[in-house]
Protein: P53-induced death domain-containing protein 1 isoform X2
Amino acid sequence: MAAVVEGLEPEEAGAAEDTAGLAVKAADAEPGPTPILAGNWLNLDLYPGGCHRLLHLCAQQPSPLLQVEFLQLSTHENPGLLETTLAQVPWSQLCLRSLVLKGGQSRGALGACLRGTLTTLPTALSGLTRLVHLDLSFNSLETLPACVPQLRGLGTLLLSYNHLSELPEALGTLPTLSFLAVTHNLLQRLPTALGALASLQRLDLSENLLDTLPPEIGGLSNLSELNLASNRLQSLPASLVGLQSLQLLILHSNLLTSVPAGLAHLPLLTQLDLRDNQLRNLTPELLDVPCVRLQGNPLGEASPDFPTSSGIPQDLEMPTLFLTSDVNSFPVTPQGCSVTLACGVRLQFPAGATAVPVTIHYRLWLPEPRLVSLGPHDSLLSSVLELWPHGVAFQQDVSLWLLFVPPRTRRCREVVVRTRSEDSWRDLETHLEEEAPKRLWARCQVPHFSWFLVVLRPVSNACLVPPEGTLLCSSGHPEVKVIFPPGATEEPHHVSMQVVRMAGRELRALLGEPEAAVSPLLCLTQHSPAGFLCPVTVQLPLPPGVTGFSLDCSRLHLLYRAPPAANWDDITAQVALELTHLYARFQVTRFSWYWLWYTTKTCVEGLARKAWERLRLHRVNLIALQRRRDPEQVLLQCLPRNKVDATLHRLLERYRGPEPSDTVEVFEGEKFFAAFERGIEVDADRPDCVEGRICFVFYSHLKNMKEVYVTTSLDRETQAVRGQVSFYRGSVPTEVPQEAEAARRRKGADALWMATLPIKLPSNLLSVAGRLGPDWPAVALHLGLPYHELERIRHKFRDDLDGQIRHMLFSWAERQAGQLGAVGRLVQALEQSDRRDIADEVRAVLELGRHKYQDSIRRTGLALKDPSLPGAST
Structure:
């Protein structure tokens, strides 16, 4: 997102950019509200307490505000304090050229920018005779303050994201106003005096409640851009054909049934957006506009001179489909349809999206690296949805809603839908919709079908760099800027930036140095293979606690990383660092990763690599639990450390097992596997089981959980089998090591072993369960189970006879734990239920167990020479 100071002359805008690095804040290490002024720029919207700092400046004599020309103040303040502060500023004595009083610096639960508390302005503000740029966006204005129309030198007025329902007629008295933005308000009508703004070049009134336009709007002879999208317009005044300077006209998402034919004759009109209206007839001349967009209009009743491309009958209602889990395809006709898949995904095909009927197939894949493309600091929030036929282009964009796991925090991060296009991945413009608490949808428009997934990434700010240059700022870290000088490119270039911050506590723990600090980590990306013709300037804030007045330059290091390499290079000696009190500026020609370090260490490249890895590591615990009613069913899960206690508490009634493993660290998307050892084997034929090893891929926001059935080849008739499950990093090796070799490897310095947890299979009570049949209730009653307990088991496992038997036996065995004579009671209950065959088998097993026990005692030399003992030698 490029930060442009609208309404200033070119040399003034350049001065604003040059002084952007001198934004004012209080020194982090010094108490008190006194800010440090530098140049003619006063920026009080980056840090809390801006009103107190401004009041402190007003109280000084002579006031430092007299030299300020560019003032920014956040309106996320107490309403009373904000009103008091603005009333005490000596506006008439100031020489301000630009005034920004806006909210939007804070975000809500869904990541939306919050509005400030500003509801009015003091009348004294009309004394700013030199003011050319006024930004009041993201506030709570319901009416335009009376002082605004009195600012006769105003060139730019930004009023977006307020609560304005109308604009005053006095607005037409601003003779030099060239840019007016009133988007995302509640405007229902426009003043007729709007047509008197002879200098107006750009007018943005999108996202309002306008249903008509005054005819006087056709008097804006210098207007080049007009945006009326997302209103309620049903018709347009014929006077629009008088906008002879108009180049861009945006009218999408309205209720228009027709447009003036004369628009086609505007000499400079190059873009006309008429999507999502109710247009049924268009004149052929409108198609001669170089770029006209008509998707989402019911053009089925077009005139003979303009035949419809789809021929869709307009009296047919769009069908709605709800698919069950056993259906993996659905038909789409030119009529369009709305589809809800069994996995919760929703799609909407507008009428005319396809010219002929087509069958769409879908599949929901478990995420794995070959299907998931993640950046170093991205997190996956959903499974992978595949829609095919791949690459089938639609005549109109299809709407797609993907359900995803809400992230724990989205500070300086954003949710996007990522799709595969040919051989590369790209992020789609994404909108979030909340259906219920903790149930979020990511909505996007897709031009064709492929793979789709939802990703949480650091906020990406992008701009199109024109030949005349521009300024790119980070929205999450406004102190990070990139300045593109004029002549940096001959053709427009798409450029984006991402910023990641590292906690100082983690860095100091890593380095063992109390004064170590780093700046935010900056990633610069350009989407064009061609380079820039001249270097661009990057501005990074100095590391926390470091100022230009006190820093030791020998301890300041500028590090650079060029993917795909993981190494960081110290390029401090190769660039000229320009230091101010708060910032460091340098020029670059390569777009990659940059990081400022302040440390006494001399070789920081290796430390930077470790710190960068630490940024991407997740601390997790591994658990292995056995179902109480069926110990052969084992649940394996990898959990973020902060979710372990809550998860175990939730599973306690159904599962039991050892304590979680020690904390280990894994990367997003890292592979690992579970190997059962010491007589325990996996009884599974499943795609994620390789050579008896269960494969995992860790994704921090998904359930890294597998449930498997285990068995053993050891003798379980007389004693329990005590085995274990171990977790190892990486993929299952081609040659799976034996247990002894695996145990030796886990002791090495570079061991891939993560954790080992015990697994215990009880003596074979399951063999008894396997011999019982529909007569199990008789055995249960003789074991002492009440009748209502039998009815509860029948209802819970009403379609599963084996489940009824196992549940009955294991629940009874749990209650007998620690009591003597439990096996005898089981044998007696079997005999009383006329199952002497099973009772005899249990007796034989017990006798065999006694003989084995006595043999083991005798081998150790502990047997008594008493012939009365069972198995004693005679």
The radius of gyration is 36 Å. The CA atoms of residues 541 and 583 lie 4 Å apart.
